[in-house]
Write a structure and sequence with these properties.
This protein is α+β, with helices and mostly antiparallel strands. It has five helices and eight strands.
Length: 353
């Protein structure tokens, strides 16, 4: 059976792609013709000198197109191309796994189209007669394939989108937590810097307070001594101190009182700064607490991301195994369909005899 079939129609090029047809109503939207990537092949009938593009999905022909010189394969993106079949009144679209596969198919399409043009120029009548014969039962899919990595297109796109969106959401949460942690760390560093400055100012103020207290005690002793001196002069002189001495003593007392008042104000300012220092310490403790909480949340988010990535890897591995099994089943079905079609043609010839 196989040698006889090869004498009639031979596969000359095969590739795997997702097949689409234009929506007959809108003439704009694409309708998937297959649920997964299928084999698309160029066949050549040496007896009729006819080239065809054939693709079988399941038990029906998805593409059964005779290549004519007027056809043009257009690459609309890096991995997608299309051509119009006026006889079937439709437009076919093919989505490939790689850009290289698209270029290979486009080059083969142009080569086949040129060959069909040469065949038509040699025998226009014969080509027209054979065109009617090309609209026949679906041919068996080819057994040769040049692709490999594109089998991964069997994967469910909806599941990939769901897992990817979940992973992106968790990464976004972790990113937000990291930003919050950085802000808290910056705030903590600012508080620590302010705290160091306040501690240094407080130590300096405490040293100044001790010095001022000693000076105040000395001023008070000097005031008491002057008062005792005035009282002694009054007691011995009977008429009191002279006006000049009295003015000097009064001026000295006023200066001492003004100095005491200034020192009291400075002490009050230092005490208020001390209370501000305690408030800053409280804010620093709160910032440290928030930072620790953020670190705990980040740890939890990292754990969740690791679990999600592990689940994603497990799901992808399971899907790869399923893809391999499905591919093996499809290849077996392709061979069976090829054998059945060959048997059918042999039976038809036997009936004709």
């Amino acid at each position: 059976m196989y040698p006889h079939h090869r004498e009639r129609e031979q596969p000359i090029f095969s590739a795997r792609a997702h097949v689409f047809q234009i929506d007959p109503n809108t003439k704009r939207n694409w309708i998937p013709a297959s649920k997964h990537a299928v084999t698309v092949s160029f066949f050549y009938d040496a007896n009729r000198n006819v080239y065809r593009i054939i693709s079988v999905g399941g038990t029906k022909a998805i593409i059964n197109c005779t290549v004519t010189p007027s056809m043009t394969f257009t690459k609309t993106s890096q991995k997608f191309g299309q051509w119009a079949d006026s006889r079937a009144n439709t437009v076919y679209g093919l989505g490939f796994a790689t850009e290289q596969q698209l270029h290979q198919f486009s080059d083969k399409f142009k080569e086949v189209k040129d060959a069909a043009r040469l065949a038509r120029e040699k025998s226009q009548d014969k080509e027209l007669a054979n065109t009617a014969l090309t609209i026949a039962a679906p041919q068996s899919p080819p057994v040769m394939c040049v692709n490999g990595p594109e089998d991964k297109l069997f994967r469910s796109q909806s599941a990939d989108i769901t897992l990817s969106s979940e992973k992106e959401r968790i990464k976004k949460m972790l990113s937000e937590g990291s930003i919050c942690e950085m802000n808290l760390e910056a705030e903590l560093f600012t508080l620590q810097d302010s705290n160091s400055k306040l501690v240094a100012a407080l130590h300096e103020a405490n040293a100044n307070v001790e010095q001022w207290k000693k000076q105040l005690a000395a001023y008070q002793e000097e005031t008491e001594r002057l008062r005792d001196q005035v009282a002694e002069l009054e007691a011995h002189g009977g008429h009191g101190p002279s006006d000049l001495l009295k003015d000097e003593l009064t001026q000295s007392l006023e200066e001492l009182e003004a100095l005491l008042k200034a020192k009291d104000e400075e002490i009050h300012i230092l005490q208020s700064k001390k209370s501000e220092y305690h408030e800053m310490e409280h804010e620093r403790d709160e910032a440290i607490h928030r930072l620790r909480e953020t670190e705990m949340r980040n740890s939890e988010l990292e754990r969740r991301i690791q679990n999600s990535e592990q689940n994603l890897n497990n799901t992808l591995e399971d899907r790869d195994r399923m893809d391999s099994e499905i591919q093996r089943a499809i290849e077996i079905l392709d061979i069976k369909i090829f054998d059945l079609n060959d048997l059918r043609q042999s039976l038809v010839k036997l009936i004709d005899k």
